[in-house]
Every structure is written in structure tokens, then in C-alpha cells.
Amino acid sequence: MKNSDIRKGLWISFFVLPGFAVVFVFILLPLFLSLFNSFFSWNALVRGGFIGFDNFKTIFTRYPYRDRFFNAVGNNLKWFITTMVVQNSIGMLFGYMLSRKIPGHNFFKRVFFIPVLFSVIAVSFLWGLYLRPNGLVNEFLKLIRMGSHVHAWLGEEKLATFAIIAVNIWRWVGFPSLVFLAAVDGVPTDCIEAAYLDGVGEWKMFWRIIFPLIIPSVTVIAVLTIIGSLNVFEQIFTMTGPEGGPNYATDTISLMFYRTAFGGVDSGNPAIGLGSAIGLIIYLATFLVSIGSIAATRSREVEL
Q1: Which of 155, 275, 286, 289 is the most buried (most CB within 10 A)?
Q2: Helices (DSSP H) in 40-104: which residue ranges?
Q3: Which residues of the chain have pLDDT under 50?
Q4: Rounded to two decimals, what is the model's pTM?
Q5: Residue 114's Cα: distance from chain center in Å?
């Protein structure tokens, strides 16, 4: 082997190995440990004997794990559907409007993106105060003579999850806005000009010309939305506590994983095996749904 080939291989290794080490330590190793630990019984932090898929059976069939799990899955679905439809639709609308160079578009770019820079814990804590029965939101509703719409936003089971989702949308909508703005700006101007010359309306031009050309950006946002919706944790923990109150109305799979692995659901003791099984389920669900989303959106991609 030539010295030049050896030097080239060393340089490639120098740049590749640090990235691989990060992926291995923070992604692959926890995944394999979760898989391994999920097949054993545990007495607090002491690993017991091999029990196969019993931990998974417990999650899906035994009370209270079964009820808590499917309740959490339902809340994650609420997050996913609401965020995917509302947040990303608003982000696409804002991005398209900003690409049209509306008056003050540079100012609005900054305004939309500023909340993304805030700490999720700080945002959640402040909005938790605002959404109290005597908080800023209710006081504002009273001020504008809409007192009939005053609620205990985080204290009512039917409203709590959607109130937290609304806060999450407020914080994150600037990110898809800028992604879609960059994607629309990347559409060749000759395509748009040709559409205008043919008398195509704004709405038809967007759906028939612009949208198919920005599908790669839609794919990225969809995958990030899926990952975020299935792993939501800090915001709910801060605003409604580790049990996803009231009465588990805002509970999610990640929150259940935390309680199970570090505190136990029914005994108060750590349940490493059950927690590892829940963690593995989160991994698999995120992977499979993300792959499905990529396949669904890529089938609509258009090449110039």
C-alpha cells in the first residue's frame, strides 16, 4: 500500500471516527443496552434472570401499565396530529408570505424565530404561570370582555394537552417558517414567472408548482415533527408535573418511561427492565414512523 493511501485513510479516519464515536455512545449503545435490559427481571438496580418478552407483555396487558401506556400513546398522537397539521401549516403559510417580500418581512423573520431560541424550561415555566386560573391569559380574556372563555387551562383534562401543544406551537412555529422560506426562495424564478405569464393564480401556483418542488423540506420538517412528538418530555414535566396531570391527561410515553425507569409506576421503585422496554418501543416507533413519512413524501418529490 502506498504511503499516500495510508495518509488518506488516516485523514478519513480522523474526521469520521469522532462522529461515529458520538453516534455509538449516545445512540447505538443506549439502544443495545435497552434491548438487553428489557429481557431481564430487575430488583431495583440489580439485574435478575432472563425473562424474555415478559416486560413487553406487562406493558401491554398488566394494570396499571396497560392503561397508562395506551393513554400516553393517545396523547402522543394528539401531539403529532395537531403539531403536524397546525404548526407546519402555519409555518408553511408564514414562510410563503415572507418569500413574497411582504412589508416588514425582515422584521417578521426575527419575530417568528426568536421563541425558538428560548429555553424550553423557561418557556414552559412562564406559560405555566400565564395559564393559571388567575394568570395572564385569563386576565386578558376578562379585560377584552371574554370572561366566558376563562378556564383552568392546565387543570381541565380536556384542555390541558391542547393548551401545552399551543405553547409548543408558539415556540417552534418559527423554525418551519424559515425552513419553508428558504425552500420557496430556492424555487427557480423562471418557473414562477412562467406560471404568472400563463395566468396561474396564487393558490394554484403554490400547490401545482411550488409545493412539489419543496417536498424535501416538507420531509425534513415531517421527520423532525415525528421525533419531537414521540419524545416530548420537558414541557409537560415542567407545566403539569412528572405524572402528566391532571389525572394523567397530559401523560406521554417519554414521561411514562421516566416514571417507570426511575420511580416505578405501581411500587415507587425503579423498574429498569420495564423502562428499557418502553424506551425500546419509543425507538422503534420513532424509526418506523419516520421511515414511513420519508417514503410517503419522497414519492411526491419532483425533479427539474
Answers
A1: 275
A2: 54-61, 65-82, 88-99
A3: none
A4: 0.87
A5: 19
